[in-house]
Write a structure and sequence with these properties.
A: mainly alpha; B: about 180 residues; Rna Polymerase Sigma Factor, Chain: A; Arc Repressor Mutant, subunit A; 2 domains; about 0% strand; globular
Chain lengths: ~250, ~180
């Protein structure tokens, strides 16, 4: 290629750099962010034990039975359960699957991760209900609160244990998820009708309790949980009420 | 600890911060490699969802953007394989977006779409090099890392790619 051509091309390359750069549309930015934050968490499996070591576990029979039940549930209604929302008959299978997942967790830290992942899924259910099926909003809120309370109970167990890398990682994961959930719930609250505010404010309060517990991790910098929904009084309806008072809750 | 390490450890807020930082770069890559804005949006979403799943396997010594571009190149290639034959580029330009913006924005986007149509006439490796080297203004060394080709190869291809792009833009302008 001649010098003349090279100079022309260099000039052309400079012109290219001056082209206006398209950027992601705001709607994509917001929706994709919300969907990434609500996506189920990938939990890294704990290290594999030697095959014979399994037989020394006292809960082996229970775990095997649970796995069998899980397989039966998966075969019977896996796809229906996967696409079901709280309030659907098939959602009972989802809940049963969640309980078995927690039951077969190797230790409390893994169980906490599992419970956090389940609460992520319940938050996604809540967002799906708001977007596509408002009639499922109340049961979805109740299921979300129940899932968060299970995280809270498991977190209390893990916090009481001596520090290990796995324990601290699980608590850090719960703390991160909790902060994201509070932000997501506050965004949801802004879009909800007045009669659904009771449940969502209660959900925010429960999640703030979880976040408060994670602040007790030694060495963790104090970071206040996001406050209650902007523009709403902190002692709004639902504070201190039992979650059983929620509409749609069994 | 940096954001990518924290994200690899499961910190979703760290991943969200990385998303905020790199979304536009990934979107632009998809925008220039694909035919329509809608496809670019779909692929951008797919890239970040795949990145989220792959985070536990992320190697922190590698730049995070290179990790994202690696996923983006695969997703774009998969998408193009699945979509073939697709709508013509004339259609893509004519129906690029259903949402008209202010005049100035629309004019700027029209330029970007004309450039996209011209880039589509290049070979896939030329497209990558034009996007990374001249539109994203990455160094030859970075482009070599992103594409897995030696720097000398990049330097050779980039001149041919520029010449081809200039010709393609010329013929786009005559339409």
């Amino acid at each position: 290629m001649s010098d003349m051509n090279d100079r022309d091309l260099a000039r052309f390359a400079e012109e290219l750099a001056r082209f206006d750069r398209p950027s992601a549309p705001p709607a994509l930015r917001a929706q994709l962010r919300a969907s990434l934050l609500a996506a189920p968490v990938v939990v890294v499996s704990p290290p594999r034990r030697a095959p014979f070591a399994l037989f020394t576990l006292p809960s082996l029979r229970l775990a095997l039975a649970a796995v069998l039940i899980l397989a039966v549930i998966a075969m019977a209604g896996g796809s229906a359960a996967a696409s079901s929302l709280p309030g659907d008959p098939a959602f009972a299978l989802t809940r049963a699957g969640d309980e078995i997942q927690a039951l077969v967790a190797f230790d409390d830290a893994t169980r906490l991760m599992t419970r956090v992942a389940q609460s992520d899924r319940r938050l996604a259910d809540l967002e799906t209900a708001l977007a596509h099926r408002p009639s499922a909003l109340a049961p979805a809120t109740a299921e979300y609160i129940a899932a968060t309370e299970r995280v809270s109970a498991e977190l209390a167990t893990v916090l009481a244990q001596p520090r290990t890398a796995a324990r601290d990682a699980a608590i850090a994961r719960a703390a991160a998820a909790s902060a994201d959930h509070i932000a997501a719930l506050q965004a949801l609250a802004a879009r909800l009708p007045a009669d659904a505010q009771f449940g969502i404010q209660r959900a925010i309060e429960v999640q703030q309790t979880v976040h408060g517990k994670t602040e007790t991790l030694p060495g963790r910098p104090a970071s206040p949980a996001p406050s209650a929904a902007p523009g709403r009084p902190s002692n709004g309806p639902g504070r201190g009420s039992a979650p059983t008072a929620l509409p749609g809750r069994p | 600890m940096d954001l990518a390490r924290r994200a690899a450890g499961g910190d979703r807020r760290a991943f969200a911060a990385l998303y905020d930082r790199h979304l536009d770069a990934v979107y632009r890559y998809a925008f220039y490699r694909l035919h329509t804005d809608a496809e670019a949006e779909d692929v951008t979403g797919e890239v970040f969802h795949r990145a989220l799943v792959a985070m536990p396997k992320y190697e922190p010594r590698r730049p995070f953007l290179a990790f994202l571009y690696g996923i983006a190149r695969h997703v774009v290639a998969d998408h193009l394989r699945e979509q073939r034959p697709s709508a013509s580029f004339e259609d893509a330009i004519a129906h690029a977006s259903d949402a008209p913006g202010p005049e100035e924005t629309a004019a700027r986007l029209d330029d970007a779409r004309r450039l996209r149509a011209a880039i589509a006439r290049l070979t896939p490796i030329q497209q990558d090099i034009v996007i990374f080297r001249f539109l994203e203004e990455r160094s030859t060394k970075e482009v070599a890392q992103l594409t897995g080709k030696p720097e000398s190869t990049i330097r050779g291809i980039q001149m041919r790619a520029l010449a081809a792009l200039r010709a393609a833009l010329g013929s786009e302008g005559e339409r």
